Amino acid sequence: MARLITILATLLALCQHTALAYPRRLVASKVFLNGRDVEKEYDYIIVGGGTAGLTVADRLTEDGKATVLVVEYGQLSNSASITTVQGGFMGMSDTTLLYDIDSVPQTNLRNRTIAVLAGKVVGGSSAVNAMMTVRGTAEDYDRWGSFFGSKSHWTWQNLLPYFQRALNFVPPDDAVTKSANITYDTSFWGNTSGVYAGWPSFQYPGTSAQVDAFRGIPGMPFVNDSGSGVPGVYWYPTFMDPKLVQRSYARTGHHDRAANRTNYHLVTGSKVTRIILNGTTATGITFVPVGSASGSATNSSSTAVRAKREVILAAGGIHSPQVLQLSGIGARKLLSSANITTVVDLPGVGQNFQDHPMLTASYMYRNFTIHPSPEDLFLNATFSAWAAAVWAANRTGPNSIAIGNAAAWLPFPVISARSSSIASTLASQNHSAYLPPDTDPTVLAGYRAQMLSYATALRNNNTAFCNLVISGGAASGAIVDLHPLSRGTVNINTTDPYNTEPLVDYRALSNPLDAAVMADILRFTRRYHMENPLTAAWRAAEFAPGLDVTTDEQWRAYLEETVSPSEFHPAGTCAMLPRELGGVVDEELRVYGVTGLRVVDASIMPTLPGGNTCQTVYAVAEKAADLIRYGRPDDAER
Ligand SMILES: Cc1cc2nc3c(=O)[nH]c(=O)nc-3n(C[C@H](O)[C@H](O)[C@H](O)COP(=O)(O)OP(=O)(O)OC[C@H]3O[C@@H](n4cnc5c(N)ncnc54)[C@H](O)[C@@H]3O)c2cc1C
Ligand SMILES: *[C@@H]1O[C@H](CO)[C@@H](O)[C@H](O)[C@H]1NC(C)=O
Ligand SMILES: *[C@@H]1O[C@H](CO)[C@@H](O)[C@H](O)[C@H]1NC(C)=O
Ligand SMILES: *[C@@H]1O[C@H](CO)[C@@H](O)[C@H](O)[C@H]1NC(C)=O
Ligand SMILES: *[C@@H]1O[C@H](CO)[C@@H](O)[C@H](O)[C@H]1NC(C)=O
Ligand SMILES: *[C@@H]1O[C@H](CO)[C@@H](O)[C@H](O)[C@H]1NC(C)=O
Ligand SMILES: *[C@@H]1O[C@H](CO)[C@@H](O)[C@H](O)[C@H]1NC(C)=O
Ligand SMILES: *[C@@H]1O[C@H](CO)[C@@H](O)[C@H](O)[C@H]1NC(C)=O
Ligand SMILES: *[C@@H]1O[C@H](CO)[C@@H](O)[C@H](O)[C@H]1NC(C)=O
Ligand SMILES: *[C@@H]1O[C@H](CO)[C@@H](O)[C@H](O)[C@H]1NC(C)=O
Ligand SMILES: *[C@@H]1O[C@H](CO)[C@@H](O)[C@H](O)[C@H]1NC(C)=O
Ligand SMILES: *[C@@H]1O[C@H](CO)[C@@H](O)[C@H](O)[C@H]1NC(C)=O
Ligand SMILES: *[C@@H]1O[C@H](CO)[C@@H](O)[C@H](O)[C@H]1NC(C)=O
């Protein structure tokens, strides 16, 4: 029976593909559901209609000159799971919008597997994320350039205008700003983008109090604006259109405004199987309808499209390395075990994998007397009825809050007394011991360069390592390690590379110093809740791990059981680094050894920024669009 269905499906796919009998549809919209509607060639082909892909497509088609095709796996969706801001969790709970991937068992996490979340819809992960709108610090972006030496144009100064172009900042309502003590500074923002950074029309009073409570611990830095590039305690906006009070994302901010342009085409439900290479020049791509077995790179249901100028890979941190490897660009040994002919032996592809680990200590205030609080939405019927009424009438009130708007982003020396010793240990480690045994020497050199940079950052106050999210209520918020030291891999499954998801291995805690850094983050978290004069009256109880956990060994055991290596920020797998440091793309985001092929998405980040990644992806994409259109900036613009 299954076989019969397969045969029927193949026949159907063949009929659809042999579309010569069909008159070509005259479509007002240039969004195609089927490969047969696509032209034979475009100036640019973009693989992946996600956060970066749609941003670049919008910019490249803006002047009406270049033709662009975006090929996206998912569909256009108007689902309420995407548009709803309340709570910030609806997108990531809707499995129809997400890839179905589990990591390989994590050997240092008692063999636990981790759900790998990434958006599978037009808009990509910007359609499903929690809408926290933050940047890393200036040093995070200067670090990227530092791997290329002092002449790099990847600096905070150079990237700032792209952050400003990327988002349209709409300040919070004056009354809310005053009553909650929100600070912001518009000089770090722009107001032209179709993607909005907005604010809810309500804040819980407990949020302001919990921001203020960081003053109870000496040496805490406070920052007036989340976009200033300085670590500290600060307020930040939400990826939300403040007029509609709906998620603002790459689809609404870039696709929708480009959709009427005759030079912009998007084909949905289509999986790119490989980049076509003539010698070492990228000349196009092949794609198949989602659901059809690929079998190999090309088959009867596959469509080939030519790129006259460039192919731009924007499939995200998990899938961009997969597409490169399937195209013969990657480590020779891996590719030959999958019977893929190596076109460019590029060992860095799929290596250097990073994500932000989430830690799971849990506190509850037994005497939290500040109301209303987020818990009141569930515990106080009068309050929740009011919240529902103002939302229904005016789209205002607590239901306009996504996941909150305040957090601490703290440098290591301000949370730990042993920053110097941890930094020295990191600098003098035998770095090769912490990567897979067969790691290429160039990748190892890149890892070493990163660890030396982190050793400096661990001692100074310019890079945030510890992120405590403020809940505003009785239950504690998320805890994140912003600069993990372990590096994982994302490689094709060599058993059946074209029909399987890549093998995602976080290699969590493979560098043992991660556990020490995380232990100090958790010790600081305990200090903030339990040993702080400004939180004392709330009388915190520690639910996890429990006050008996104090030594490094105990913390490590707790972390092995509980840490999640992902905040859904996969990055680093097509790193922008010199080739001798295991890089995959150069400073203009061009793949080494290939002409006409760039990568533009979270995978190019050589090291994670100390903040959730979406705003950085938008800024990188804006800069990439300029690199594609105008080339490398001259010295004056750096
Ligand atoms: C659940 C979740 C919560 C998050 N929360 C936040 C947050 O609150 N704040 C924040 O700043 N960041 C957050 N992030 C991270 C942020 O959203 C991502 O870093 C960012 O959107 C990644 O952009 P990208 O362009 O690299 O990839 P994506 O936006 O994921 O785009 C990749 C696109 O390529 C498509 N694709 C992949 N393979 C193929 C193929 N072979 N053929 C065709 N198309 C393909 C995908 O379907 C997808 O649309 C979150 C992410 C997730 C998943
Ligand atoms: C994890 O899996 C490996 C391989 O299957 C096994 O050898 C090991 O004992 C397991 N470890 C734990 C803690 O279960
Ligand atoms: C946009 O920013 C510019 C420059 O800062 C400012 O002059 C202008 O008033 C702003 N427009 C809006 C609508 O806020
Ligand atoms: C706001 O700041 C003022 C001055 O520092 C302080 O008096 C007030 O309590 C703060 N309000 C809140 C809600 O934290
Ligand atoms: C970092 O900040 C802490 C706390 O404010 C301070 O004690 C320390 O001297 C600072 N370190 C450096 C290198 O500036
Ligand atoms: C932050 O804002 C406050 C109030 O506007 C101001 O007094 C202070 O100088 C600002 N701090 C910085 C670092 O800009
Ligand atoms: C796109 O075209 C349609 C039909 O011509 C029009 O109604 C719509 O306003 C246009 N949208 C944009 C964003 O220009
Ligand atoms: C490949 O490139 C060569 C040399 O530039 C050219 O002659 C040939 O036509 C190209 N082949 C295809 C299929 O594009
Ligand atoms: C690779 O080729 C060998 C020999 O032809 C074959 O046994 C093996 O199944 C192939 N593997 C894949 C993934 O195609
Ligand atoms: C419930 O909420 C209402 C409205 O905010 C408030 O007036 C009331 O005091 C709350 N009740 C309790 C028991 O907290
Ligand atoms: C909605 O807004 C209108 C106009 O500001 C106001 O009169 C009305 O009371 C609001 N409705 C609710 C339920 O708050
Ligand atoms: C690799 O793919 C094969 C074939 O689909 C599958 O059986 C196997 O479980 C995959 N390997 C892993 C580690 O997921
Ligand atoms: C509980 O909180 C109230 C209000 O802040 C305070 O007056 C009281 O002392 C607290 N109780 C305890 C036992 O700390």
From TrEMBL:
Annotated keywords: FAD, Flavoprotein, Signal
Signal peptide residue numbers: 1-21
Cofactor: FAD
InterPro entries for this protein: FAD/NAD-bd_sf, GMC_OxRdtase, GMC_OxRdtase_N, GMC_OxRtase_C
Keyword Flavoprotein appears in the UniProt entry: yes
Cited Gene3D superfamilies: FAD/NAD(P)-binding domain, Glucose Oxidase, domain 3
Amino-acid positions noted as binding FAD in the UniProt annotation, renumbered to this chain: 121, 272
Keyword Flavoprotein among UniProt keywords: yes
PANTHER family: DEHYDROGENASE XPTC-RELATED (PTHR11552:SF115), GLUCOSE-METHANOL-CHOLINE GMC OXIDOREDUCTASE (PTHR11552)
Family: Belongs to the GMC oxidoreductase family.
Name assigned to this protein: Uncharacterized protein
Organism of origin: Achaetomium macrosporum
